Each structure stands twice: as C-alpha cells, then as structure tokens.
Amino acid sequence: MLVTTRIVAADPRGDRRWRRLAEGELGSVFTSPPWIDAVCATYGFTPECRILLSGRGDPIAGLAWVAVSDIRGDRLSSLPFSDRADPLVDDTAAWASLIDGVVTDAAPLSLRCFDIGVACEDRRFEQTGAAAWHGTPLAGTVEEIHGRLSKHARRNIALAVRHDVRVVADRGLEAVRRFHGLHVALRKRKYRLLAQPVELFDRIWHAFAPDDAIVTMLAFAGDELIAGAIFLVWNDVLYYKFGASRHEHLALRPNDAIFWAGIRWGAERGMRLVDWGLSDLDQPGLVAYKRKWATEERTIVTLRAGGDNARTSPEAGAVLGELTRLLTEESVPDEVSAQAGSLLYRYFC
C-alpha cells in the first residue's frame, strides 16, 4: 500500500497541528505557540511554518521561521531571540521535504539546535557558532535532588540562608516588571548591551499566565530587591529564561537562592527537568556557574545556509553597535537605555 504524505504551510501561533508537534519530545518552549506569539507580536514579525502530514492528516514533522527584512538586510531566522528552536523532525527524509524551497540564495536561513539533530547532517548548512546547554533532572525527592547538586551549590544555598536572603515566587505581572528594571541595569553595566523591551516581558506574561506557566523569583535582602529570575513552563519542563542581580549584593548569594527556589518550585509541581538555557562559550564564568547546578550538558550550534545573493548592509550593523555603546554609557539614565532597547532590539536578530 502506498503511504502518502504532504506538506502544508501554516501559522505556528494558532495551528493545532503545530502545537501537537511542539508538545512532543522534540519541542521546547521556544517552538511553543505562546513563545512565538509573544516574540512576534513584540517585534512585528510574521512567523511561518511548514508541517509534514501523514496520509491521515496527522502531523509528523515541522519547521518554523520568521522572514526579516530591515536596515540590516534580508534573512530567515528559526526562530528569533530563542535559545534554540530545534526543527521538529528526527527523520532525514522528512527534513528534506520540510527544507525544500526554504533555503534559497535570496536570504540566509539561520537556526539554533542541539548538535545531534538532522539539520546538522545537511551539508548545505555551515556551523557559525556554538554554545553550552545545561539541564537538571528533577527525579526523586527535593532532598535527593539537593544531594545531587555540586558541593559548591549546596554551600552557596546555605550561605544565602545564613544571610537571610528571602525568595518570593510571584506569578503576577508587576513582579515581571520589577524584574525588568534589574535586567536593564545588569545588561547595561555588566555587558554594555541594551535590554529587551518591557513590552516583550508583558507579552510573555500574558501568553503564559493563563496556563499558570510563568513564575518570577524575586530575591530580597530585607526589603531591598537584589536579584530576580523568570521561569517558564512548557511540556513539564521548567525553563530558566531571564536572570539578573545587583552586583553589590552578590556576596549574599541571591542567585543561588533563586536557582534552588526554582528547582524546588519545579519539583513540587511535578516538572521533569529544569532547562538552564544557552550559555555563550565566551562567558566561561556563566558556564561554570550552571555546571554547579546541572547534571546534563549538551552543545547548541548555530547553523546557516543559503543567502548567497541576499541584500545585506554591514554599515547598518556597525551603526547599531555604536548606538548601543553610546546608549549604555554610565551617564545615560536607565530609563533612556530601556527606551533605546524598545526601539532598537528588533534589529539584533
């Protein structure tokens, strides 16, 4: 009997077949409809996807991307501002069907995925970057999970307790906005980078809150907010997505208190894993920090194909870099730096 399949184009934000794939083993929060919707609504992007269907109409595999055309040129991103967005496919033939016609000379396609996916075997793609990924399985009791952490993590948890660091798990929008203030200040002063706009954080909250799938951990020394993190839930995985702290209070170990609070929050709600996300290899301190908490480590690669005749503007990239430098000077008020992020961040994908 001949088994037939077909490809359909869809919008991943509302297509039930894409959602089924995103809820499967290969999916992540970054291929989930609420995440795609929040990012695209913030930056004015229109996402696209191709879904491979069986003869009965069941989704077999999928690939999503966003077409970007702006002052930097033309490009396809799968998917923008995401730690990774693995193609939802594990079969070479299915991958060939999905990617057919997507890779062209008109615009390069970039994607981030684990280094064992089928896209890595496609010779049209070259690797342009690599990063570390860390995860902490939540099997067992909270006490057993604590025992599997590194001795350094356990020591810092105890230090935070002795320093009376208090962590509040807050599911409200106001907590997200309080965190954003920390986020703007950290990116500006530590990394000389603009922050994602508060509009993105608002949209993420509105996308995930109806399913009780977002929590903001805020750490306090007395009544002073000294650190925070935003966690998202998708498919029984707790994702650490954003984190920030005040440098002058790091000796109190507020980040360790937040990491441990996140682990306990996830374990108590039956999560199977904490995903600590992407860490750039040029930040060895961050990689080492996450290793204290994780028992799993993998590699995320950035792949690129096509675009030989794409419109590009290196000058625009240089100007954006200079604007970022100027707008993150210490003399610039944080409010102005935040507004600059709202205006310019969409061009960084």
Describe this structure in words.
With 349 residues, this protein is an alpha+beta fold. The chain has two domains: 6-130 and 302-312, Aminopeptidase (3-Layer(aba) Sandwich), CATH 3.40.630; 139-271, Aminopeptidase, CATH 3.40.630. 35% of the residues lie in helices and 29% in strands. The chain contains eleven helices and twelve strands. The protein has helices spanning 16-22, 33-43, 92-99, 142-148, 151-162, 173-191, 198-208, 254-268, 284-291, 314-327, 334-344; strands spanning 6-10, 47-53, 59-70, 73-78, 109-114, 126-137, 165-170, 214-221, 224-234, 237-245, 273-280, 296-305. It has a twelve-stranded mixed β-sheet with strand order 1-2-3-4-5-12-6-11-10-9-8-7, with helices on both faces. The protein is globular, with a radius of gyration of 21 Å. The N and C termini lie far apart (46 Å). The model has no long low-confidence stretch (mean pLDDT 96).
